[in-house]
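Progress against Task 2.4 (sequence-to-structure conversion) is shown through the following example record, which the project officer requested during the mid-term review.
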Amino acid sequence: MKAFRIVVLPGDGIGPEVTAEAVRALEAVGDRFGVRLEMEFCAIGAAGLATAGEPLPQETRAAVVRSDAVLLGAVGDPSLDTAPLHLRPETGLLALRKLLGVYANLRPVKLHPALLDRSPLKEERLRGVDLLIVRELLGGLYYGEPRGRQPGRAVNTLTYTAEEIERVARLAFEAARRRRRVLTSVDKANVLEVSQLWRETVARLGADYVDVRLEHCYVDTAAMRLVTAPGSFDVLLTENMFGDILSDEAAVLTGALGLLPSASLGPGPGLFEPVHGSAPDIAERGIANPLGAIASAALLLRHGLGLEEPADAVDRAIGAVLDAGLRTRDIAVPGGPVATTREIGERVADWVTQAVSVP
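Structure tokens generated for the chain above:
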């Protein structure tokens, strides 16, 4: 049987804790389905700076490009927020995305029935919430040149080419075809020339997907609809910064940022990570929610390795754990029982391995 090589980048803060539980789920998949998953652990972010003096060490670079998929925990350390740009943990993450060429970030947002009471929105507004945000990941303000600071002045450049827009838009159209066949393209075309190019390019490509209903939406309207009518969305296509902001807003619908996974895809190995940050204030306390990381492992199996059945088993295990009432602190019922990070991970792995209900 083919062996799949997975590079695991635990990262900073709660990253090592939640990643350990995602690895536990992957190991359970190997036990149950006989899949050979060879895992190599490398440093990134502040951990990379501590071990090698740079946020994306050369050893890590070499490992990820020869892998089949990459599992990431989180990066970030507040003590480095004022460090030079090349010595900040987040610079390692941006460099990793560019190295792998992962131009499309997929962030599914689906509400589990057991967590309806954890969302700040009323239940009637949450009915039918099952959306996918497709965020362009290698362009826009985060990568544009020129950039920099001078005394009293700073500049970042927003730039996109039609080719960059088309490749992520095509992926979004294909995703919509597999879902409810509605694509909402988000822009600010009433103000920004880049957004005008975005809208024109997506509209032109839409002629190849007549079976998908395409709508254009200004980013401020999209932000409002995510709160007032989130069930009206199927697939949202956005540029880099808009997607960063809107996907974090959408995460609130589920009740906690710690629940959501993401997949970053390109021509080579994919990058899979929970959407939350490093949360150093709760690190090493055993209270972080690992379900976003575990769900990212399911996306890794599905999109990175093409293993649908094992991916479904992990997803079902997450649902079984939630149905059983197991909760970390962020989603616990006030006054109710609270499980640790490890306890949640162990129950998910037990369900995957045994394919039985979680006690």
